[in-house]
């Protein structure tokens, strides 16, 4: 019987594409695939075959872990007419796709392999969040399955013509598989990736500057507890983080080390070792994503691929992703994708099919926008940039906020009309005389400080554990894409508390002041 994932509530179900922690183990050879059921008609001339393969044991165990999958073969595929394959997997708490969920790729003539990741669906073991020694071996074994299918187009021995799709956790396996194949074989094998709303650095995503995104950490824990998807040490670490107000790094005796758990689990680990993927990608990232924000996609675009690959790739930011209501500070809501509409005349899935047709089949698709980043604004406009770097400065003066308690304050930065798209930051001289000084910073738009609302719902924290007196600081601000209309203003918002970082503010009241503040903005059309 297929094991189903547990969700908190229907309102959170679409947002629980979260993550877990993992530990590295020495790789062992996977066992042979288990016998598969006979292929069965699946509708529209498509045949489906379910099977499982035996992969490496979980840490501390000796029994191979079964990884289960379904292969959909399109009607006309054969050894004489081989077709490219698209690999798919699910978000956190999910399971492999039914035919209807991948029908667009089957209709386009692709075969599809969709699989349950370790710890989910029918697959065994615990989830270790795309750990190279575990999930990495799983993906590599699945690529081997595809390479042995006689009706799949092959570019060489063990090298199928292969693309990959999926969002969040289903984007994480794509980077993992391509980087691990690059590391072990010298080639990524995947010919195209379409990762959506996924991460570059798990620790920085879950706990920027060591301050935990509590809402998402709690959702992670709740979504996994009853289905036993996570290793017990991860639950212990989440409790420790909430109790101590810090991201557990093992520095306190007896506590877990989440930094070590997540060290290898994302593109950053490979990038830090000099690896780059030289394959085309269609990157989709949520501009309003509160778990894997826009900046995580920017980092993958800038560092996870070669310059040549970027020239053949497209970045799309849409209003959506992992989204929970932004109440304190108050944010805005939007759920639109004007850039996919502009580039492909439809949604991101339609854009994905056209992108794969262009890369995997070499078909003339009239697709445009390569080598650039296309970002949705809350007003449903698409703005295109070549770099997210700041290019303009605005002097703000003194910026001060209470810590621990208080309400958000907004400081004028620029009058509209102005378009900002990319990654802003601020610099200045910081003074904070307390201990564990924390505050949260972001950009806001409004007609006055009283009605200013947070741009795309994100803030980022500062964490000063000891007193500071007039020390120069560079403070990161969330990446954004926003049009500030005439009659409204762009503000720097600073708040002592944030619902995303629930109970992660300063434990003691105090004041943080930044003097000679300069906000550095990525302004479009200066």
TrEMBL record:
Family assignment? Belongs to the AB hydrolase superfamily.
* The Xaa-Pro dipeptidyl-peptidase-like domain, residue ranges: 67-314
Q: Which SUPFAM superfamilies match?
A: alpha/beta-Hydrolases
Protein name, per record? Peptidase S15
Among InterPro entries, the record links this protein to: AB_hydrolase_fold, FrsA_esterase, Xaa-Pro-like_dom
A single GO molecular-function term is: hydrolase activity
Q: Name one Pfam family in it.
A: Peptidase_S15
Transmembrane annotation, as ranges:
none
